[in-house]
């Protein structure tokens, strides 16, 4: 039950104490030392708002094509309406992916608008995966609302997810007709989004298979998280540029930025899943340990091999009381993970991935302002406490 | 619970007494008078066998890319292995769609092989829909075997279906790299398959919504069946030609052939669902009536408005004993449907759709032999008793 890059709650500016700081540090830590100055909160707000305002109308039009009741189920899922179809104030999440898609068009020297079909497509693919994953995982809440399968039944969750997947391709291919892209570039965009979607599905398959195992290697965990979170962020960060005709080397570099950004995001998410303060995350203490999630801190701690690592492995392998651990038992496990270095390793991994993401960005020639905005979005995604 | 163009069982040659014949007729009826001579059974066997032998290796290679256990689940679904992964003799169905895809490449003057990625893609989309529909509909048997969700669980049925949908696009887009098609034509093929898939999903949504209603108009029923069965047969009959570079008008005409062929198939399927002999279909007597399926004969009978029609409407609207009708009660309903003209209308509709399909074929210039083979496949699909 990885978070599929759905930030746990809204964080408006990316500032504040970072969970990737080690406990000894007294000031709010930057996730990465060579970051481009301080995060420009206004920049990030502008990029997210632009992604939302340009892509949402196209998204609503696309979803409006679906046969009833799939159109209404979609509107509920995106937070536009309540279960009875009445309009609500919800905005359907932070729209990081559309923001990246529009920015990537600008990285290729085109207007942001060229990226709109790409932003809509990645948002559709993301939400297709949420609809299906929530059902597979039995999750009853998403964005503080009842999930679609609990409100409209499993069949609608399956069907509307399928429809969103198909719509994603439909919208991208229409980019050639009315979005300003060439047919060849629209086809390249579909190919990259398709491969990302396949990885996303592979990642969910791996995540599900991990549930039946006591331990998972760090490499396996990184592969799963790269598939489940990295691949679609990679496609988000390149799709606008592909629609604008960037060459394959440029698109590959932008994908690497998004991919490693996804891994950095996920490392932070894994830290928050154990040590995120309940009052901030809105989730139970040690939530990921309660769910026996094979996250990076656990895998890293198990790989370390010292006494705390061995003791942790014994506790996790013990069938006794499995699934009924109390708060105190979970706290013991969290302490063992920390003692075996799992927390520190994961925090360092988040910094490493963040650095790698920014380095990939350096391979693509683009205006300095656009590069700064990519960096600001990266910091917003990585430096957070919830 | 429409059959999504999955013929009820194997029929090897398309001969024998046709269900579209009226009871008075003494000889095996042809579905359509102006058919091109008798069905050439050898032709049909050759086309089906060619579709299977050329497309199955590519299909197996594509499915082999999926992360475990999705590769094994797919192999089970296609009938290549049993639930433990041991090879079986199964062949995964009759492969009408691949046969059409290869033939359509030849209609555009290209070798049949150009259509292979198209044949594989439509087979993947078809099986994606079967995996999800079986789960949504709660169907426990498919092709005389336990369905995937009953063997591997609902999550695998969802996930493997998703993966097949993504693979379909992947394989089509690879046609540009290694299948001999241009990038533009591969993109056109993806666009048509995507639209067909969206219609297929719309059709399933409509079918599900019909379950909550007492009656459905003939128009609604035809629209649902056109979406659920016609759209993908339409794409199958055009995708090879699109990959081979046929113009849009030619592709549209081939799609119309496939679409109306699908409607003809479905009309026959609806007749078999009520009057197909159990010993031949392997399904219970009056199966569709037992499931309260809103099929064409029922809709047509309800629209007729005479005394039998009115009586039928009363019985269907009566909540008493719903879902527990015995054989005798179902026989009464079948007789009322026949008395109200539902059976005769549906048989005539099958003939009409078959004629319309062949007429569409006449709009596309192609070698006489290819046209005959299209006609032979159409007759094979429509003239059947199971």
TrEMBL record, chains A, B:
It comes from the Bacteria. The lineage of its organism: Bacteria, Bacillati, Actinomycetota, Actinomycetes, Kitasatosporales. Residues 1-34 are annotated as: Disordered. Gene3D superfamilies: Farnesyl Diphosphate Synthase. Belongs to the FPP/GGPP synthase family. It holds the Pfam family polyprenyl_synt. Residues 1-23 have a biased composition (Polar residues). Keywords: Magnesium, Metal-binding, Transferase. PROSITE patterns: POLYPRENYL_SYNTHASE_1 (PS00723). The keyword Cytoplasm does not apply. It comes from Streptacidiphilus cavernicola. The keyword Coiled coil does not apply. This is Polyprenyl synthetase family protein.
